[in-house]
Design a protein that fits this description.
Layout lengths: L1 H14 L3 E2 H8 L6 H10 L4 E4 L6 E4 L20 H7 L4 H12 L3 E6 L5 H14 L4 E5 L2 H14 L22 E5 L6 H4 L8 E5 L7 H7 L4 E8 L7 H11 L2 E5 L1 H6 L6 E8 L3 H25 L5 H12 L4 H21 L2 H9 L2 H6 L1 E5 L3 H12 L5 E3 L6 H12 L5 E4 L12 E6 L6 H8 L12 E8 L13 H5 L3 E7 L1 H12 L6 H8 L81 H4 L11 H16 L3 E3 H8 L4 H13 L3 E7 L2 E8 L6 H17 L7 H8 L6 H11 L4 H4 L1
Helix pairs in contact: 2-3, 3-7, 4-6, 6-7, 12-14, 13-14, 15-17, 24-25, 24-26, 27-28, 27-29
Organism: Nocardia rhizosphaerihabitans
Keywords: ATP-binding, Helicase, Hydrolase, Nucleotide-binding
Pfam family, one: Helicase_C
């Protein structure tokens, strides 16, 4: 192909000289021939082609070929371009010049922060060009081959004389270095010692692109003293991360403010977006559990600050608690209780039923005709959302499970050719899978910090003009800690003026807004059905059989307007029975989304989701003898969870699972179950009002079971070496079956440590 392509370019430049590489590639219009291919051939064939002038990007003509209209004019061969001329060709943006100047003043050390699609790579290329012009070797580390190709393209266009080290062969030891720049990836960084040994490459420049995409193994091989100039590039630096504070900042130097979203807006680098805040409600059981977890978090926070001296500033408090939790004693106990309660609350909010139902109610035609990324908390919630989409025929994929190379390639190709419409990601992002046409970002799980939010938005927000603004949908539980009215580090604070419009609404109002944004009319339903007839794109198995119908959208809902103008319409969820047996109805919480004036009631049925088979999992003694029907249901639920935990648990463990917020209420329930000989319990003792619960079996010696429960609590609380004393404990239990791993978990919990630390 090389000779044939060379001949085609010669013919093209003979007829039309002074073309750039992108213009040549566009004029040839050959499959597989892009700017990179053309650039490599032009630079390789210096005997045939030459650069004309000093424009950027470089323009090319044939050597010793007179320009059109002047057949007798002698050809002036320009001098080979110098690195200085290439620096002049590279036009830096204002923020890039400022950041590069600060990096130079810092002794050519620092970490530059810049949100996605604003030019971090160009800044890094400029630093490399300046190093090469000063005869300083440069090593660049990038995440993958895609980013490496981008760097090679930029260097080929802006510094064509730059000699780049190849990675395909082993260099000979003792031979003088011939390259000026080496570009390695995370998977080839192990070859760095061969390519750039300290003897051949000292006092060099190290550039690490996308600093947030590497693990400790890469840094162990990369962060060496042979690099005296150090530049790291990242979307956002997590200053609360221990590795950042202890390793990256000391090595690279201070963080340098580059380009945040307000700067990107001011310099017209990114287009405006619309932020939509969507409030949903918890059901009665979820609300009771949230109340309990909120109370537990507040109580443990106060204890850690008042009794153990934890600092009040959030970042310092978190560091203090993380360190305290690794120790032993009562302080570690409270620290672990706090961390566990915070994590459980985040999971509850991220995976509540209303959020999954919302995804199931979004118009399929809009999701199918656009591209979206949905961010969840854990793999299980990502899988639930993915199932809700594919069950309706919406082509979607998820990164929640470990992907094979073939599956990853299928996702990338599907997103590129738009046969895939939605990518569902968990908290740990996979930036190696680009979503080029993404217009909608849906945040189902609250971002843990500003850094995570910037990384998420960087997957969606890109430069370029569009007929409609990109959408960022933040779905939150009304009245909870993730409610924007309570969240100090809100989404609007991070994106700043980039958010040209902010709308607060509920699910029904969101659907109306999306239809208006997408430009659909009520008659577009037929087109929607035709689109959905394509079938869902599922990586594990193709979708087959009839597709379930899309849930009906509300027939009457107000079009949401900016928060200061209009109130949102309501989204009526199908009522679910209360745990306590009270009458069903929507839960109302402080800080919930305001309701509009009464309007015709419309119900949007949630996507059907199978309920857990509680009766199948219930223990043998789930038939109740005494107590009210509601208490009988609650006891059955307690016994079900106790069975799932191996027939041994603390009262707090079970209470968290069934939504009991008060230890006294749980004790009443346990006493009722004990009277019916369905379990036995023992006091934990000390300053705790918790209980140890043991499930019973038919014809059990209850007195012996109570003695076993007491023996376990004494061992868990008082044994100097609980692991060493487990053999004696199991001997004392003598036939009472208790899972050993549960004993270790309970002992660790009561001692304020982790099972791993206890072992």
């Amino acid at each position: 192909m090389g000779n044939e392509l060379t001949d085609q370019i010669v013919d093209l430049l003979r007829a039309q000289p002074n073309l750039s590489a992108p213009e040549i590639a566009e004029a040839l219009a050959e499959p597989g021939v892009n700017r990179s291919v053309v650039n490599r051939l032009l630079y390789a064939e210096w005997a045939i082609f030459e650069q004309v002038g000093s424009m950027a990007p470089p323009r090319w003509a044939l050597k010793n070929y007179p320009p059109p209209g002047r057949p007798d004019a002698p050809t002036q061969v320009p001098a080979p371009p110098t690195e200085a001329s290439h620096r002049e060709q590279l036009s830096l943006r204002a923020w890039q010049r400022r950041a590069l100047s600060e990096w130079t003043r810092n002794g050519r050390k620092g970490i530059v922060e810049g949100v996605g699609s604003t030019g971090k790579t160009v800044l890094g290329v400029q630093a490399v060009i300046e190093a090469v012009s000063a005869n300083t070797p440069a090593v660049v580390c990038v995440a993958d081959e895609v980013v490496r190709a981008q760097w090679l393209d930029e260097l080929a266009e802006l510094a064509p004389d730059c000699r780049v080290a190849g990675l395909g062969s082993n260099p000979r030891q003792g031979v003088e270095r011939t390259w000026q720049v080496a570009i390695v990836t995370a998977s080839t960084v192990a070859r760095l010692r061969q390519i750039a040994s300290p003897t051949q490459c000292s006092n060099a420049l190290l550039v690490v692109d996308d600093l947030d995409r590497y693990g400790g193994g890469v840094f162990a091989q990369l962060l060496t003293d042979q690099f005296t100039s150090r530049l790291a590039l990242t979307r956002a630096l997590d200053r609360d991360d221990q590795a950042v504070r202890s390793r990256l900042l000391p090595y690279f130097g201070p963080a340098i403010a580059g380009c945040d979203y307000p700067t990107a807006h001011a310099q017209a680098l990114l287009g405006p977006i619309t932020v939509i805040q969507v409030g949903v409600e918890l059901d009665a059981k979820e609300r009771a559990r949230l109340t309990h977890l909120d109370s537990l978090v507040d109580r443990e926070y106060d204890t850690l600050v008042d009794s153990y001296g934890a600092p009040g500033k959030p970042a310092e408090f978190q560091t203090f608690v993380d360190v305290l939790a690794t120790g032993r004693g009562s302080g570690a106990h409270h620290a672990n209780r706090y961390l566990t309660a915070v994590a459980d609350r985040a999971t509850l909010l991220a995976e509540c039923r209303a959020k999954t139902d919302l995804i199931g109610a979004l118009p399929a035609e809009i999701l199918t005709e656009t591209q979206s990324i949905i961010f969840t908390e854990r793999p299980v919630s990502a899988s639930q959302v993915h199932h809700a989409l594919t069950a309706r025929g919406i082509p979607a994929a998820t990164t929640a499970t470990t992907l094979t190379a073939a599956q990853r390639t299928a996702i990338i190709e599907g997103l590129r050719d738009r046969s895939l419409a939605v990518l569902v990601e968990q908290r740990v992002l996979d930036p190696t899978i680009p979503v080029p046409g993404a217009e909608i970002a849906v945040l189902l799980a609250r971002h843990r910090n500003h850094t995570q939010l910037i990384q998420r938005l960087g997957r969606v927000l890109r430069p370029g003009k569009s007929n409609r603004k990109q959408l960022v949908l933040n779905v939150f539980v009304a009245g909870s800690v993730e409610d924007p009215s309570r969240d100090g580090a809100s989404l609007e604070t991070s994106v700043g003026p980039l958010a040209a419009e902010t709308v607060r609404t509920d699910p029904a109002g969101l659907i109306t807004f999306l239809r208006t944004w997408h430009g659909l009319t009520p008659r577009a339903g037929a087109r929607s059905e035709a689109l959905r007839a394509r079938g869902g794109h599922h990586l594990s198995a193709p979708q087959s059989g009839p597709k379930p119908q899309q849930p009906a959208a509300p027939k009457s809902a107000q079009t949401p307007m900016p928060e200061s103008v209009a109130e949102p319409a309501r989204f009526q969820q199908a009522p679910r029975p209360s745990v306590s047996g009270s009458a069903p109805g929507p839960a109302t919480a402080p800080g919930s989304v305001p309701t509009a004036a009464p309007a015709p009631t419309t119900v949007s049925e949630p996507v059907p989701r199978p309920e857990p088979a509680a009766e199948a999992a219930a223990p043998h003694n789930s038939v109740l003898v005494g107590g009210s029907d509601s208490q009988g249901e609650e006891i059955a639920e307690l016994l079900t969870e106790l069975t799932r935990l191996g027939q041994i648990a603390t009262g707090e463990e079970v209470g968290d699972l069934i939504g009991y917020t008060d230890p006294g209420d749980l004790r009443i329930l346990a006493e009722s179950a004990a009277r019916d000989e369905q379990l036995v319990f023992a006091e934990i003792g000390g300053d705790s009002d918790d209980l140890l619960l043991l499930g019973t079996a038919p014809h059990t010696d209850l007195q012996r079971m109570r003695a076993a429960a007491t023996r376990i609590t004494v061992w868990a609380n008082s044994s100097e070496d609980p692991i060493g004393a487990m053999y004696e404990l199991m001997s004392d239990l003598d036939g009472i079956s208790v899972p050993p791993h549960r004993l270790v978990q309970i002992a660790a919990f009561l001692r304020g440590t982790t099972p791993k630390a206890l072992l």
